[in-house]
Amino acid sequence: MNEPTAAALPVFDSHFHIIDRRFPLIPNQGYLPDDFTCSDYLKRTAGMSLAGGAVVSGSFQALDQSYLADALATLGPAFVGVTQLPANVSDEEVLRLNELGVRAVRFNVKRGGSENIQHLETMAKRVHELAGWHVELYIDSRDLGDLQNLLIRLPAVSIDHLGLSRDGLPTLLALAEKGVRVKATGFGRVDFEVKGALRDLAAANPGALMFGTDLPSTRAPRPYLVEDLITLYDALGDQLARKALLDNALAFYRLRR
């Protein structure tokens, strides 16, 4: 499949970051990323048939909501937000953010900047009951074993970046079979052959995979390339690729096509 054909496929970008120094940024492990504004993002994805996407809060944004509110207002109703919240957040704040387009809470186990994982079950059930939200985990799949039974009990959950590690793939596959979603993102972050993992995950659950650019790929050994989209299509074929590129994420984020 050549690049122009791949670029023409409709894509819901399930995972990217907006970084804008008009809003608070907090160094994480001494790291602060360069700006990557809404304008930068739209320029970077101009060659893609973009159907919308999910703006994901990073460790360096901690619990700030101001940047996310601005980004969602700027990008429009085809885009949703994935935020980080304290366990004691009020019901009113969750519902306010829901009105702005937020649809999920992120637990950044790998980098920090979010609430502690000990609050995962309580928060997951609470925000789902309040607003229909799900939870998203940035976690090394090698650390999923102790959480496996809990994650299966949660109303809705996804794992970032294919779980990152080869050694955790069997656990990730078992979770996908039980309905956990997996973001097909950060191909430059993983330590395994991506095509085989994509095929295995799609076979375990055709509804599990959700493609994302991971732009601007902060701290990734290798940033997103258009070849990543082509890799997914070549691995899955037309029908499963279209689910991973669009349909699965639209359903998960409760958006209409």
What features would you describe in this structure?
This protein is of the alpha/beta class. It has one domain (3-252): TIM Barrel (Alpha-Beta Barrel), CATH 3.20.20. The chain is 38% helix and 16% strand. The chain has nine helices and eight strands. The longest helix has 27 residues, at 226-252. The protein is globular. The two termini are 25 Å apart.
Quick recap of the structure?
The protein has nine helices and eight strands.
Please supply descriptive tags for the structure shown above:
257 residues; 9 helices; 38% helix; 8-stranded parallel beta sheet; single chain; alpha/beta; TIM Barrel
Task: Please give the structural blueprint.
Elements: H1 3-8, E1 10-16, H2 38-44, E2 49-56, H3 66-75, E3 79-83, H4 91-100, E4 102-108, H5 120-131, E5 134-138, H6 148-153, E6 157-159, H7 169-177, E7 181-184, H8 194-204, E8 209-211, H9 226-252
Parallel strand pairs: 1-2, 2-3, 3-4, 4-5, 5-6, 6-7, 7-8
Helix pairs in contact: 7-8, 8-9
**Global morphology:** globular
Mean model confidence by pLDDT: 94
Largest sheet: 8 strands, parallel
Percent helix among the residues? 25-40%
Number of helices: 9
Helix and strand content put the structural class at: alpha/beta
List SSEs in N-to-C order.
Answer: HEHEHEHEHEHEHEHEH
The CATH architecture is Alpha-Beta Barrel
Beta-strand fraction estimate: 15-25%
Q: How do the strands line up in the largest sheet?
A: 1-2-3-4-5-6-7-8
Total strands: the figure is 8
What's the CATH class, please? Answer: Alpha Beta
CATH homologous superfamily? Metal-dependent hydrolases
Q: Over all CA atoms, what is the radius of gyration?
A: 17 Å
